């Protein structure tokens, strides 16, 4: 079931064609990466697909319901989301808990179930022990992991991620990719992630969409279906699954 489907999208910036004829879709239960050279308008494509900026042409269909028949929830993690300054007042736990508010309504009380999910989300990114620290006091990589935990806490059906592992070390990046694979394959989430680490994430992702262009033409994309499914399955059998999502 496609959670997002884009057909013939084009985007123009200051009368300059940037994207042309881009088509792709992301299904429930699928972890898809989006790659391209620097300047390949990857972030622009994501923003246009979500309606944050208006494309010139194209058809965009976002599912209204998830596979369980409930309202589809989308979480978008843009670049530089974790640039909190030293004076940011919230603690780590408070910030992640705020991810549960839209789910319950802004004026409803946080329940014990919400707090359990917040703890689970923070533990999944290795930040539970830092829960009482102020966001502004964390390192860049720690802030990024907390921002990801908040995204987990909101329990979306569709993850849209723009370079989410910026500032993370190799171990943290690998663990994050494994969590995204788990979310897609065990909980039926759909994941679209912009990345420069195509080689590192290859063992975890199901498919790659790559933006390309010929000289003096706008960026277009084609979908690359990886043929390493057996290798991926073998790789993951040696990693114990960790429950993160699926409340």
Short structural description:
By secondary structure, this protein is of the alpha/beta class. It is built from 8 helices and 9 strands.
Which key phrases capture this entry?
alpha/beta; 247 residues; disordered C terminus; Rossmann fold; 2 domains
Instruction: Give the neighbour order of strands across the main sheet.
Output: 5-6-7-3-8-9
Query: How many discrete domains?
Result: 2
| CATH architecture descriptor text of the largest domain | 3-Layer(aba) Sandwich
Low-confidence runs: 225-247
Beta percentage is: 25-35%
The count of DSSP E runs of length 2 or more, i.e. the number of strands, is 9
Mean pLDDT: 83
CATH class of the largest domain: Alpha Beta
Global morphology: globular
- Superfamily at the CATH H level of the largest domain? P-loop containing nucleotide triphosphate hydrolases
Determine the structural class based on helices, strands and strand pairing.
alpha/beta
- What helical percentage do the residues reach? 25-40%
Family: Belongs to the ABC transporter superfamily.
Keywords: ATP-binding, Competence, Ion transport, Nucleotide-binding, Transport, Zinc, Zinc transport
InterPro entries: AAA+_ATPase, ABC_transporter-like_ATP-bd, ABC_transporter-like_CS, Metal_Ion_Import_ABC, P-loop_NTPase
GO molecular function: ATP binding; ATP hydrolysis activity
């Amino acid at each position: 079931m496609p959670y997002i489907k884009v057909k013939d999208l084009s985007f123009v910036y200051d009368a300059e064609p940037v994207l042309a004829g881009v088509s792709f879709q992301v299904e429930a239960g699928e972890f898809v990466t989006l790659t391209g050279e620097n300047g390949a308008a990857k972030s622009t494509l994501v923003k246009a697909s979500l309606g944050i900026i208006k494309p010139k042409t194209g058809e965009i269909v976002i599912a209204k319901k998830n596979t369980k028949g409930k309202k589809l929830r989308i979480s978008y993690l843009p670049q530089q989301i974790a640039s909190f300054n030293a004076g940011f007042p919230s603690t780590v736990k408070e910030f992640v808990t705020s991810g549960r508010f839209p789910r319950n309504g802004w004026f409803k009380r946080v329940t014990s179930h919400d707090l359990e999910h917040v703890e689970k989300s923070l533990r999944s990114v290795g930040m539970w022990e830092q829960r009482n620290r102020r966001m502004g006091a964390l390192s860049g990589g720690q802030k990024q992991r907390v921002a990801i935990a908040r995204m987990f806490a909101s329990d979306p059906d569709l993850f849209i991620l723009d370079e989410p592992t910026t500032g993370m070390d190799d171990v943290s990046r690998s663990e994050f990719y494994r969590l995204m694979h788990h979310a897609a394959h065990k909980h039926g989430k759909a994941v679209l992630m912009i990345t420069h680490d195509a080689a590192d994430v290859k063992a975890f992702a199901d498919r790659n969409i790559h933006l390309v262009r010929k000289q003096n033409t706008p960026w277009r994309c084609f979908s690359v279906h990886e043929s390493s499914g057996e290798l991926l399955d073998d790789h993951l059998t040696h990693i114990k699954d960790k429950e993160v999502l699926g409340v």
